[in-house]
Automatic annotation (TrEMBL):
InterPro entries: NADAR (IPR012816), YbiA-like_sf (IPR037238). Residues 360-371 have a biased composition (Polar residues). It catalyses: 5-amino-6-(5-phospho-D-ribosylamino)uracil + H2O = 5,6-diaminouracil + D-ribose 5-phosphate; 2,5-diamino-6-hydroxy-4-(5-phosphoribosylamino)-pyrimidine + H2O = 2,5,6-triamino-4-hydroxypyrimidine + D-ribose 5-phosphate. This is NADAR domain-containing protein. CDD domains: NADAR. Residues 35-179 form the NADAR domain. Pfam families: NADAR. Gene3D superfamilies: YbiA-like. Residues 345-371 are annotated as: Disordered.
């Protein structure tokens, strides 16, 4: 056997080590944090979750899933572009699928390291939100609950257990441990020391926290957040997407992808701009419907849900009403500013009166000690 082939086998073998029986874990569902759908309480832990935008080599990327998938193809920048251009993380994954046999040759060996790095980018660039979510898991085991994937996740059994390598859950637990014990070490991120760690034809850069608030600025978020349809296993995901979710060998036709893109375009090009206009102040669902006369109720509900999930629109309860997110933010900033100035005034008054009473106390105690 020639040397190169031997090395290739060795690489695959090393990558497969994580899948050997010693890596398989059994979890009791009642004792862990599990996530499957991105809209569940801990759905943000999924790479498919929107709302955790990234920037690598100055390029905006909507999800850690898209970044991870793009990393398969350092030598094919056009495929990387195609992957990160997708609005939905699922479509991003699907777009790369036809080219999988051209993944970097050491992919199986390096994919866990790459996933670890992607998760660190997600934390670094979404420090408060993702960090908080990680910490909210406490000391519990984190498990990606999956029907079929017992490498990245674990598969439920009948007796309330989940069995699998749970590589993603374990990487998340590892990250949580560092976050608790040595958060500073996570505030910058070196590129991986693997060959061809390249994104869009440039070596991947050293990354650091973005700003004082540790997150992307609001303006950046608005630029980045466009469309990330919620990935669930429910009716709004097509059968083909669901099959892909469960890793069945489905042939994904261009028509499926085109349909998703068409739907995205209507939402992106028509619904969102209209909502932005209408929702500069709070509106009830019925009021919104009046602006979309040709649209049926169910469709409108789905769009509103999506707009909320994407962080474009804010939904307020009791009574239910909606407002465009940036209008909501500027309003709540105003409120915050008002509150701050109110509390400053109150503090000033308190300070004055406490200084007064302090001087009284001092006087009193002086007087007392004089007795
Ligand atoms: N197909 C699919 N759908 C989802 O909703 C998922 N959460 C996953 N799992 C994620 O897929 C990524 C791994 O992809 P490869 O199979 O290694 O290409 C990883 O992010 C898993 O968490 N898959």
């Amino acid at each position: 056997m020639n040397h190169q082939i031997l090395l290739a086998y060795l690489e695959i073998f090393r990558g497969e080590i994580m899948q050997t029986s010693s890596q398989i874990r059994t979890y009791n569902r009642n004792e862990c944090i599990t996530f499957r759908k991105t809209k569940e309480a801990f759905g943000g832990l999924s790479n498919m979750a929107g709302g955790y935008p990234l920037i690598v080599n100055g390029i905006h990327i909507l999800t850690s899933e898209a970044l991870y998938q793009a990393c398969r193809f350092p030598h094919l920048p056009d495929i990387q572009k195609l992957i990160i251009a997708q609005n939905s993380p699922m479509t991003a994954k699907m777009k790369g699928k036809p080219y999988r046999d051209q993944s970097r040759s050491d992919w199986e060996r390096v994919k866990v390291q790459i996933m670890r790095w992607c998760l660190r980018v997600k934390l670094l660039q979404n420090w408060d939100t993702f960090g908080q979510l990680l910490l909210e898991t406490g000391d519990k085991a984190i498990v990606e609950d999956s029907h079929k994937d017992d490498f990245w996740g674990a598969i439920p059994t009948n007796d309330n257990q989940l069995i699998g390598v749970n590589a993603l859950g374990r990487l998340l637990m590892e990250l949580r441990k560092y976050l608790k014990e040595d958060a500073n070490s996570l505030k910058s991120l070196k590129p991986l020391e693997i060959p061809d760690f390249i994104f869009l034809s440039k070596p991947i850069e050293f990354l650091t926290l973005k700003d004082e608030n540790h997150t992307l600025s609001i303006q950046e978020k608005q630029l980045i957040i466009p469309l990330i349809p919620e990935i669930t296993l429910e009716s709004n995901v097509s059968l083909d997407q669901t099959k892909e979710f469960y890793r069945e060998e489905t042939i994904i036709t261009d028509t499926n992808i085109e349909k998703t893109e068409k739907d995205d375009n209507i939402f992106d090009g028509w619904v969102l701009p209209k909502l932005e206009k209408i929702l500069q102040n709070y509106q009830s669902y019925d009021q919104i419907l009046q602006h979309f006369k040709t649209v049926n109720k169910k469709q409108m509900q789905d769009w509103m849900k999506l707009a909320v999930e994407l962080g474009k629109v804010k939904k307020i309860e009791k009574p239910v009403r909606y407002i465009w997110y940036s209008a909501y933010e500027s309003e709540s900033n105003l409120l915050k500013a008002r509150k701050i100035s109110q509390s400053r005034n109150t503090r000033k008054t308190q300070l004055k009166s406490s200084q007064k009473s302090k001087s009284n106390v001092t006087q009193e105690s002086t007087q007392l000690s004089l007795i």
